[in-house]
Amino acid sequence: MEADMQPEGYSHNRRDATMTPLCGSHRVDTKNSLLQKSNLGCVRTTSYDLPQDFSFTFGMANKPDGLTAHTVIDNWAEFTGTKNARPPKDFKAMNRAALRAGHTTAKGVREHSTVHDIRMPVRSGSIRRAPFAPDASVTAGTQSGEAESFTDLMAHGYRYDWVLQTELAENLGGGRKLGKPSPTKSTRLLRAAAEHHALQDYSFPPSLPAESTWKMNKFKNVKSRVTALQA
Prior knowledge:
The chain is mostly helical. Helices cover 24% and strands 0% of the residues.
């Protein structure tokens, strides 16, 4: 039996005559989706309809222009260096020159610096060297410990090393056992109360004999229906 399916549209809008379970949200077309009642146990449907145009794009459309990443990387501007750039201004030297010229105000120093431009000296071929020749054994910063095998770490190969390398508690304490804690005021009072309670003579009334014939007044004329005790 062929399913009666609509040829176009979204999958959640299609109806299957064979009642085949479909994935997605299936809702009846209504004019006002806010008045539609949600089915129990189903995801609440949205309050807007999806565009019927499958080529619709949310946001800015990314239209292909034929350029690839290889083309973009090949057209990157290369760094030509700073050998042709002018050195920065030497503001300390310009301020000293303005003071020697007699300018003691900020306006005079600024005007003098505009006319007399002094740049930092250029040191061609000078490269800052390290104060010492670095060696393979030299470590910058805190030195790390010995390299341990990662395989042994994963296999718990060092789980007994700490026990074997650590001294026993008896050896660290010199074999001296700790004494009992000294009694406090509360413990002394509790002990005295317990001793006083033990010395008290609590007498109870004597118990009745096993074969007692005592009965209540209203049961004196009633005969016992149990003649013998069953084991």
